[in-house]
Every structure is written in C-alpha cells, then in structure tokens.
Amino acid sequence: MTRRVVTGNSDLIRQLNRSLVLDVIRRQGPVSRAEVRRVTGLNFTTVTNAVADLIADDLVKEVGLGTSSGGRKPVLLTLNPTARYVLGCELQSAKLVIGLFDLAGNLVGRVQKPKCPRTSPDEAVARIAEGVREVLAAAGVSAEKVEGLGVAAPGPLDAESGVLLTPPNMVGWQNVPLRQLLEEVTGLSVMLEKDGNAAAAGEVWFGAGKAVRNLILIIVDDGIGAGIVIGGQLYRGKGGAGEIGHGTLDLDGPRCSCGNHGCLEALASGFALGRKAAELIRRGVNSQLADLAESGIGTEHILAAAEAGDKLAADLLDECGRMLGIAVANTVNMYNPELIVLAGRLAQRSPIVLERALQLGRARAFPVLSNQVRIVRSGLGDDFLVRGAASLILARLFRGPVNLFPS
C-alpha cells in the first residue's frame, strides 16, 4: 500500500489514520490489530486509539480470536457494514434515481423519480429530497446514520464548488449551485461529480477497476462522456476533463447540443440515434419505430426494436458501434490505459454496439498499444452511475479527505 505522508494539523492526521485503519479492516477483515499495524506501518498507540474510536462509533466489531503464533490469541476486527449508510444519486437529462447502500456496497433501497430535459433545477432538487426521504423510510434507516449523498451529474461542472455549469441536454441548468441546494433541503453532506468520473470511481471500488491504476470509462447512453483515472486518482484537468462526447469526428456533421458540429455525441448517442431514426422514417424507411417518429424515439425504443429484429434500429446501433470504436481507438492511442470500460445502455445492453466497438477499436489503434489494453463492458448493471455516486462517499469515509481512491 502506498501511503501519503501528511504533516501538521493534528486533527487531519488523526482523521487520515482513522480512515486508513478502517479501510484495512474493510478490505482484509477479520484482521488483528497487529496485522493492521503491519499493513499500515502505523505505531501501536495510533492503531490502538483508532480502533477504539471506530469500535465506539460502531463502525468496527470484535468478532472472536485468531490463531496464535505464540502467546495470547489475537482479537479479530471486522467492519460493521450496517453501522452507516451512503446515498447515491444519478441525475441525468431524462433520468433521476436515488440508491441507498450499506458500507459493504450492498444496495439496500432504490427509488426512481420523473425527470425530463426541461425539468427545472428547483423541481429536480425537490424530487431528489423526496426520493431520499422515501428510500430511507422504506429501509427503516434514520438520516443520522447516513454518511452523505453522492451525485453523478452531466458535465461540465465544478466538483470543488459543487456547481453544475452548462450541461448541454438540460434546459435552464446554467451555473446551478447544486451541492448547496441539496445540502439545504436534505441536511446531508453532498459530493457532486461529473457522471463519467463517478462511474469510473464506481469501477475502481466495485467493478473491473479494483486492481487497476490507469483506466478510462466511456458512457454511451442518451449522451456520451468519460471518466479518467490516472495513478489510482481521478483526473479532472481544470474541471472538464473527459468530455469525449464532444470530440469532433465529422467537421460537417450534425449540430450538437453543445453548439459544435459533428461531435461523437451528435453522431452516436441515444438522442442522436433517435433523431436519425425519425428522419429516416420520414424519408420512407420502414421500421416498427414509425409510430414514435413524431412523439420521439428514445434509447430504450431503439434497443427494444433491434432486439425484435428491426433492421433500421440494428443499422443505427451498428453505426453507433463504429463511431464508438473510433473513439476507443483514439483513447488507446492517446492515453495507453490498462483498462477501458464501456458503460451505459447502448454499450452494456447492445451486442451490436459492443462487438463493433471492440472490433474497430482494436483495428484502428496502434497494435503495440491495443495489445496491452483490456476493453470490457461494465458489469455494474443499469445502476452503475448510482453506485458510482455512492462510491464517492465511501471513498471519503475509508480514504479520508486527501486520497479518495484505493492505492
């Protein structure tokens, strides 16, 4: 384990040591105090005091005796996963989900609220607060046992200040102080993170990225975005890194919601596929989606039609996979990560998209680089963003305020 040395500020040092001890118990328990000292490198007094505090807070339990190597048998420690809970929220242009998790990452409760691109910030905040109350009540968990609420939202945003800046597919959401608004109505500590970053954090904590220090996660859904982990830490740039959906693939392509032309998102996202399907149907192309051409064709409609054998839907998903494959190849060549994770409904639920993206992504990248990278579909299911949002709070609890992700 790599530990960051912190000097000064005794309260901060004490908090970091406590988090470090708790994280070792979480990952390796049942474990003795002596083993905790060996793994962390902390001295006897520091570990003893940290464990005493954690037991007093009910976060850690003594669960029996271990094997003696000579002398008294050691008392074993383990995490109490139901001592606290964390909340995760997926806030998207057309989706709003709140999930409750215990400290072991088990989903305890889930609620979905109505949301569309024109839902105002005030309405969305009220629905999130309502969802929090509902999911806690259904699980019989008091708000006092909740460590915090993590929110995964479309970028660009400022995670440090908690402000949602200019999400392209959400009307009237410019410069919204979302963290402040949510803290005021819920009374909880809130962490706001770009959806791609939250999803990447979720993979580090729960998915394919557990033992990986350099990974890129690409979300392919109604919109397209990415999260970047370098050296086990999120890479945010100046706040907007990972906007892969707004990389230009066609200089003369369709106008994107961001105002540019020919972006990956304007060509291959669920919104883009729905618009293209409606346009082709109006031109006379036969499809079982025809009845939806005027009211709006969504990502779910296209996936269902393709599964039912609709040629137009299958062709659109194939084109999505081709565009995604080019983005994957560019990512391999530019970042040379150990792992690329493909998430979102289009990547996780469409074999057409996934197979085409894998095929073209490897074919168009430098062979010496593509041979080194693993490219996998996320195994966290449709709630990968809710889980990723919750992992932000888990990371703060188990890793402290300096190092948010496992070393």
Helical coverage, percent range:
40-55%
Please give the order of strands in the largest beta sheet: 6-5-4-7-10
For the biggest sheet, the summary is:
5 strands, mixed
> How many beta-strand elements?
15
Helices, by number, come to 14
The shape is globular
Report the β-strand fraction as a percent range: 15-25%
Arithmetic mean of pLDDT: 92
Measured distance between first and last alpha carbons: 6 Å
Low-confidence runs (pLDDT<50, min 5 residues)? 1-6
Structural class: alpha/beta
Radius of gyration: 23 Å
Order of helices and strands: HEHHEEEEEHEEEHEHEEEHHHHEHHHEH
What does this structure look like?
It is built from 14 helices and 15 strands. The protein has 407 residues and is α/β, with parallel strands linked by helices. Strands 6-5-4-7-10 form a 5-stranded mixed β-sheet. It has a 5-stranded mixed β-sheet with strand order 13-12-11-14-15, sandwiched between helices. Strands 1-3-2 form a 3-stranded antiparallel β-sheet. A hairpin with a 4-residue loop joins strand 5 and strand 6. The longest helix has 25 residues.
Fill in the keyword field for this structure.
globular; 5-stranded mixed sheet; disordered N terminus; 407 residues; 14 helices; alpha/beta
How would you summarize this macromolecular structure in one to three sentences?
With 407 residues, the protein is of the alpha/beta class.
Layout of helices and strands, plus pairs?
Layout: H1 10-28, E1 31-32, H2 33-40, H3 44-56, E2 60-65, E3 75-79, E4 85-92, E5 95-102, E6 107-113, H4 121-139, E7 146-153, E8 157-158, E9 163-164, H5 178-186, E10 190-194, H6 195-206, E11 215-220, E12 224-230, E13 233-234, H7 264-268, H8 270-282, H9 299-307, H10 311-335, E14 339-343, H11 345-349, H12 351-364, H13 367-370, E15 374-377, H14 384-399
Parallel strand pairs: 4-7, 7-10, 11-14, 14-15
Antiparallel strand pairs: 1-3, 2-3, 4-5, 5-6, 8-9, 11-12, 12-13
